[in-house]
Amino acid sequence: MASSYAVLTAGAQAYTMIGNIRQGRWGVDLLALVAIIATIVTGEYYASLVVVLMVAGGQALDDFASTRAQTQLKALLEGAPRIAHRLPEDTGHPDRTPPHGPALARGEVVDLFLDDVHVGDLLLVRTAETVPADGMLISAAASLDESKLTGEGLPVDYTEGAHILSGSLNNSEAFILRATATPARSQYTQIIALVTEAAASRSPTVRLADRFALPFTVFALALAFIAWLASSDPTRAAAVLVAATPCPLLIAAPVAFLGGISRAAGAGIIIRSTQSLELLARTRSAALDKTGTLTSGTPTVGAIVPAQFPSQPALAVDPGPELSGDSAPGPTSREDELLLLAACAEQYSTHVLAAAIAGEAHRRGLTLRAASSAHEYATNGVEAHMDGRTILVGKRRFIEAAAGPIPEIVLSPGETAVYVGIDGRFAGHICLRDTLRRDARKSIADLATLGVARVLMITGDEEPTARHIALQAGIDEIHANCLPADKVTIVQEIGDRPVVMVGDGVNDAPVLAAADVGIAMGAKGSTAASESADIVITVDDLAKVIDAITIGKHTLRIALQSIWAGVIMSVLLMLSAAAGLVPPLAGAFGQEAIDLLTILYALRATRLRTSTRTSDLGPRTRR
C-alpha cells in the first residue's frame, strides 16, 4: 500500500517536474523523484512515504511562511473601502452650515460604489471608516490614523482645507471631504496596485537559487553513487538522496524577500518588486534631486524685481475675466503686477516653485485670471496666452530664448530665481528660497555608513543655489542646470552600480525610470514620478530612503544566510547518510527539520526596527 501510494506520487511529481524544467527550475524536483524511486526500489517504503509527505509538507510550509510574511500586505488589501457616502452639494458649505453635526443631519446621504465617485463630490466619512478617495477637508478638523500608508503610529490632526489621502482611518467624529481624485486614481488604490505587483515578482536572488539547484543536484547524485559503490549497499544511496530532498534554498529566498516587502510596506515604503529590493541592498551610488527631496519642497517668495524699462506697458494688467470672485482687489504696485502675471501662468504648472508663486499671489489678495491657452515645458517653464499677450515664466535660458539676454542677477545663498518674459521682453524675476530638510544631512551621512560610496545631487536649478543646499547637506558632487535628458545621461554614466535615484516631480520621471532603483517621494510627488519609480515612499520623510536601504540589506542578508545554512546542514546530513550513520527514514525526518529551520529563520526578514524620527515628535497637525 505504501509503495503504491509512493509510485502514484512519483508519477505526479514527474508530470510537475516537466513544467518546472521549462521554467529552468528542476533540481529539487529531480531529487524528489529520484529519492522516491530509490526508496521504493530498496524497499524503504516508509521512507518513500516520508519523502512524499516532505514534498507536500514543504509546499505547505512555504504557503504558511508566505502568508505570515505578507501580513502587512494583506492588511492593506483588507482595509480597502468598498463604498462611499455622498452628500448633496449644499451640505457642509462653510458659509451655510457648521462643519459637524447639523450639517451632516441636513443632507441626504447616498451610499454608492467607489466607481461612482467623481472629482468634486462631497463625501461623508464616519467614525472608524477608511477615507475612500483623496480630497480636501471641508469640516473644521479631523484626526486620522495613517499607519497603513506611512507607518506613522500616532494620529495626525488636520484642519479645514488640508489635503487628505485615501486609506487613512478616521479616528475622530464624522467629517466632510471634497474629492480631489476618483478612488481609482487616489493614493490608497495606487499603493494596493504596487503591493500586488510586488508580491507577484521574483528577484535575481531567487532565480540564482533556482540555478544553484543544478550543481546541488549533481553533487547529491554523485555522492549517492559514490556511497553505493563504496558500500555496495543501495540503501545508502537512497538515504543520501532522501537527505537532499527537498532543497531548502528554493523556499528560504522567496519567504525572506516577501517578508522584506511586507516590513517595508509597514514603514510606508512600497517596493514594486523583489528585484528592486535586492538592488537596493547592493546600492553603491545615490543621486538625489534638490527641490522637494533634499529641501522641504515648500519654497517661499522673497524679492519681486520688475525689469527697469523707460515705459511700463509690459506690466500693465488689463481688466479681464476672473477665475474666482467678482471684485477681488487688483495689483497695487509693479511688484504685485509682475507677481500676478507670473502667477496667472504658473497656475498651469505642476512645479513646486509655481505653486509657491501662485500661493503668494493668493496671500496678497490678487485674483488669478484664466489664460486662453497654456503649455508647460518640463523643467524649463510655462507659456500662457492671456488677453492677446504671451507670458513666459521659468528658467533663465528659457526666457532668454524668447526675450534675449537677461542682465546678470545677484542672488543670496540658497535663493533661486524664476524669470518672467512678456511679449518677447524680459519683465523681471522673482526670488524664492527653499530650506534644507532638517533630517537631510543625517540621511546623507547615513548613506555612507550603509556602504553607498558615491552621493550626488542632480537638479535643474542654478549652480549657486544647488551648491548652497548641497554643501549644507554634506554633498560634494553637484550637477546643476540639468534638463531631464541630462539627468538620465548622468545616471547612466555612473560607474559604481547599482545606482539609486530619489526624486519627486514630473521632471524626475525619466531619470527615476533610468536608474537601477528609482525612489519617488510619493507624499507630495506627481503620479508620473510614482509610476516611473521602483519604490514609492508614501510619507514625506527623507529618512525613509535610509529605512528602505536598511530593509533591503537586512532582507538580502537573511535570505543568503537562510540559503547557505540550509545547504550546509543538508550536505552534513548527506555525508552522514553516505557514511551509513543515517538511515533513509531518519534522513527524511532530518531534512524536514532543516526545511523548517530555514523557513523560520527567513521569517526574521519581517522583523527590523526602522527610523521613528517622525514618530518621536508626538501628534502632528497639518493644515
Your description of this structure?
With 623 residues, the protein is of the alpha+beta class. The chain folds into four domains: 2-71 and 199-260 and 551-606, no CATH class; 82-128 and 133-183, Calcium-transporting ATPase, cytoplasmic transduction domain A (Distorted Sandwich), CATH 2.70.150; 274-296 and 436-533, Rossmann fold; 300-433, Calcium-transporting ATPase, cytoplasmic domain N (3-Layer(aba) Sandwich). It is 47% helix and 17% strand. The protein is built from 22 helices and 23 strands. The strands form four sheets. It has a seven-stranded mixed β-sheet with strand order 10-22-21-20-11-18-19, with helices on both faces. The protein has a six-stranded antiparallel β-sheet with strand order 2-1-3-9-4-7, with no helix packed on it. Helix 17 links the parallel strand 18 and strand 19. Helix 1 crosses helix 3 and helix 9 runs parallel beside helix 22 (584-602). The longest helix is centred in the last third of the chain and has 36 residues, at 543-578. The N and C termini lie far apart (73 Å). The relative contact order is 0.13.
Mean pLDDT: 79
Structural class: alpha+beta
Strand order, largest beta sheet? 10-22-21-20-11-18-19
Shape: elongated
- Low-pLDDT sequence parts: 91-107, 309-314, 316-329, 612-623
Span from first to last CA? 73 Å
Layout of SSEs?
Layout: H1 2-22, H2 27-41, H3 45-69, H4 71-78, E1 83-87, H5 102-106, E2 110-113, E3 122-125, E4 135-137, E5 141-145, H6 147-150, E6 156-159, E7 163-164, E8 169-170, E9 175-179, H7 187-199, H8 204-231, H9 234-243, H10 249-266, E10 269-271, H11 274-281, E11 285-288, H12 290-294, E12 300-306, H13 334-346, H14 352-363, E13 373-377, E14 381-386, E15 389-394, H15 396-403, E16 415-422, E17 425-433, H16 440-449, E18 454-458, H17 463-473, E19 477-479, H18 484-492, E20 499-503, H19 509-514, E21 517-521, H20 527-532, E22 535-537, H21 543-578, H22 584-602, E23 620-622
Parallel strand pairs: 6-23, 11-18, 11-20, 18-19, 20-21, 21-22
Antiparallel strand pairs: 1-2, 1-3, 3-9, 4-7, 4-9, 5-6, 5-8, 10-22, 12-17, 13-14, 14-15, 15-16, 16-17
Helix pairs in contact: 1-2, 1-3, 2-3, 2-8, 2-9, 3-10, 3-22, 8-9, 8-10, 8-21, 9-21, 9-22, 10-21, 10-22, 11-21, 13-14, 21-22
